Write the structure tokens for this entry.
Amino acid sequence: MTDTLSETFAALADPTRRAILARLAKGEATVNELAEPFDMSLPAVSKHLKVLENAKLISRSRTAQWRPCRLEADTLKTVDGWLGGYRSLWEHRLDRLEDYLATLKTEEKEEQR
């Protein structure tokens, strides 16, 4: 059994794949359109797309001879859900830090009087 979250993070670890996802966030695109901004061969781009597809971050459909790629946002929602717990933790810690800094400021003002 594969760990879906690990597979997703492994796919997101590469900057080329993140750039491809950013492009697909704007709408469907063909392999040629996705390959355009990169200085790499079409087979190399296809390998990146295969990694993204295996991680269920994108899907490909068939329209005649075209195979447009599409972003699959549900997988990213799963990552966001996992990160949500950590987001709450850090927000709580930052709130505590803010309170502590306010206390220090108040004490500093009282000492100056």
